[in-house]
Amino acid sequence: xxxxxxxxxxxxxxxxxxxxxxxxxxxxxxxxxxxxxxxxxxxxxxxxxxxxxxxxxxxxxxxxxxxxxxxxxxxxxxxxxxxxxxxxxxxxxxxxxxxxxxxxxxxxxxxxxxxxxxxxxxxxxxxxxxxxxxxxxxxxxxxxxxxxxxxxxxxxxxxxxxxxxxxxxxxxxxxxxxxxxxxxxxxxxxxxxxxxxxxxxxxxxxxxxxxxxxxxxxxxxxxxxxxxxxxxxxxxxxxxxxxxxxxxxxxxxxxxxxxxxxxxxxxxxxxxxxxxxxxxxxxxxxxxxxxxxxxxxxxxxxxxxxxxxxxxxxxxxxxxxxxxxxxxxxxxxxxxxxxxxxxxxxxxxxxxxxxxxxxxxxxxxxxxxxxxxxxxxxxxx
Length: 381
Hints:
With about 375 residues, this protein is mainly beta. The chain has two domains: about 120 residues, Sandwich (Immunoglobulin-like), CATH 2.60.40; about 200 residues, Jelly Rolls. The chain is built from three helices and 26 strands. The radius of gyration is 24 Å and the shape is globular. The N terminus and C terminus are likely disordered.
């Protein structure tokens, strides 16, 4: 109250003006209903004018969004990555939530005076906790195969797959005859657990007796041998295959991914139990126990899409978005939360209204400026 009176008094003098400074809004993960606490979960935050209510790009100090800050209930600063910043539409930001529980809350603030880009927005800090590679494939206009993790496994676009509007921001479009993303001799998961997930939009299913290679690491000298292979068979069914002395396959008996629409497909493999699990749109569709761990079969190449044998025709005809690989076997709750967060963002979390927590009192045509904190509706400064 005292600070409000100061502002009113200065305005009455006629020599001062007031403008809003720092804004805040609360984000509540009310749509996460599982009992498991998810640690360092990367949550998608979607911003636009009036989302959250009262938010405007004009309120930010940096035109690149670099004055954005996220904090948890202990006021600790959270890592985040801006996938796309679009002041004329939707912006996509990934925030690492330390402990995701039902109704967990984080706070977003903007409009501060610190406009330097935080190092954690670009150094992969958002994607720890087992992520070995993350390819957002933004932004719907100019396609890149850059990796968002600190491993920097940046993909090469072979035969020019093109950018297209995706499930989350942009995606990669593959023509079904020659296009893929080359990741090189990387991501050997010898003896490790693994999780692979992506958004998939098939334009057509493979022909009978053929399959689409979605994500795989296969030998260079013998492309019929794969350390691991996530694939789609005829009929739109998803499977995981691997070679470690002999072939093992979940067989594509479940997990339909329809043509002409987006589906999220995921596979996990737990090296301790040898259990492989397939998910479509966050729902478990098949378990199968293998006999051996994931092996390493010599020099290999890892690809998103594409084939390895020159006479092969198993190139994907369709779109792929937001592809990830982890060296841990994610829980079913983690897989479900990832799907819900991206598929139903405004249901998985709710955005509180923007509130002004700091006003700037300034004298025009001078360097005088004074920030005055005002108690917000929650009683904080």
